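Example complex used in Figure S2.
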Amino acid sequence: QQQVKQSPQSLIVQKGGISIINCAYENTAFDYFPWYQQFPGKGPALLIAIRPDVSEKKEGRFTISFNKSAKQFSLHIMDSQPGDSATYFCAAGKTTNAGKSTFGDGTTLTVKP
Amino acid sequence: NAGVTQTPKFRILKIGQSMTLQCTQDMNHNYMYWYRQDPGMGLKLIYYSVGAGITDKGEVPNGYNVSRSTTEDFPLRLELAAPSQTSVYFCASSITPGGTEAFFGQGTRLTVV
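Predicted assembly (226 residues):
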């Protein structure tokens, strides 16, 4: 049973456009929702994260929107750039339990110049 | 500032062989994790540790073993390698539980033939 479902699997966006990646989770005990960015041949790197007490968090061109009642959260990349081309993973975790983090299957984003 | 260092970067094993994937971190993090990443899939937690001397199973522990004798090191042992263990392995560490703000190594690409 997959606890975090991520969509789409792949995404192609024109330079300057908005990239949107969605995730849905099942376990209401999760209280930490990070997004990771992974370039080919590299390990994932934390991009931005949100806790369920806020509905939105913005860092530069990256925004997380969080809908607690729907158990969904999404990553928005504004003014997408070719350098944003990477695989993005959402995750959900419980800050009091080290063994309960779970990842989505990833979205491969291609930003065309 | 090294962060999380994994060795080796690549390895080819024959079926039935054993090996140890090394992981060390220099951030004095208590929490460490081993994940495997299969193509088109998210990261699956193999084992985790909440501190020296304490380890626990994650989602996919079968065929693996870990130890944590020091805060810095968290090696992953594969006994009797099988083709199903062909994957990319990532080690990560975090200062808080739940995988929050985790830092990842660059990964070990393992092929079992």
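Residues 47 and 58 of chain B are 5 Å apart (CA to CA). The mean pLDDT of chain B is 93.
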